[in-house]
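## retry 2 of 3
previous attempt timed out at serialization; input unchanged, resubmitting
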Amino acid sequence: MNVSVNKLVAGLLVSAGLVAGANAAQLTGAGATFPAPMYAKWAEAYKAQTGTTMNYQAIGSGGGVKQIMAKTVDFGASDDPVPAADLEKNGLAQFPAIIGGVVPVANIPGIAPGQLKLNNDVLSDIFRAKVTKWNDPAIASVNPGIKLPDTAITVVYRSDSSGTTAVFTDFLAQVSPGFKGVVGSGKTVNWPAGVGGKGNAGVAANVTKIDGAIGYVEYAYAKQNKMTHLSLINKDGKAVQPNEASFSAAAAKANWAGTPNFAVNLNNQPGAGSWPITSASFILMYKKAEKPEQSAEVLKFFNWALTKGQKMATDLDYVPLPDNAVKAIVKSWADIKSPDGKPVFVAK
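## retry succeeded, writing output
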């Protein structure tokens, strides 16, 4: 597809398009495709203001963890928070940068965006290959009055190690013992059937070209590609649409400061307006900075993003982190230190 988000991610490089000054910093990061549109917009604006370039490779959360572990980038990014034991073992700090929603998207003849709704049972049965036709009675019962085609369902899933997959399968495993038993949860799972796509962009492309397909992507990809998203029935039994308001509702009561390493799970939150598949995306850095100047520049970038770049987040239907979370995150940066034991960056 000739669309902006796919151009952004398919080349696996997100960077600002302006020429940096000779002495400007150049930062590198890699990982989750979920926040890539947001990081691109932040990078462009930040470079215009500071001259600092931020190059981000959108290679999937698993790749981001591998890259930071290999010390080939200044920061890694993952939508699936790294377990506390692994952070401790490898000397890593973790903090969230943005909140967004994972949405099911489909290519169904005659169905408009948001028109079709699914409950937890039907959604999980589709993705574990138990429901295989769009006019299945289980789907029809949730959508009275909608004419459903006799079209086979093709599941499209992430073929790479993916935080988006981790978020999506975590939700389905929470609400469906059948899904948990057959498929499980994690960055990679053994899907019973379907077609793989690399990155959010690869899933979006396959869903668009396959009649009857259904997949899952971060909402910015669905919106910017004008894809047909589905609405979901949430924990309170209410049908909700994916948007900034429903993502914000899901994140409203999150205890960021009180959760170790900020690893809050925002899936299946209560509330009439809550989108049921919501997640933060996380940044990974070494606590002992081998290149303190580079680490300081990374933290300057995210300090700017979390304090000055929030309007840009809402423009792309991501959700800014609340002020109390930002304060806790900035405070946690004191743990990222130079070899002489001093914090590499102190916010003013």
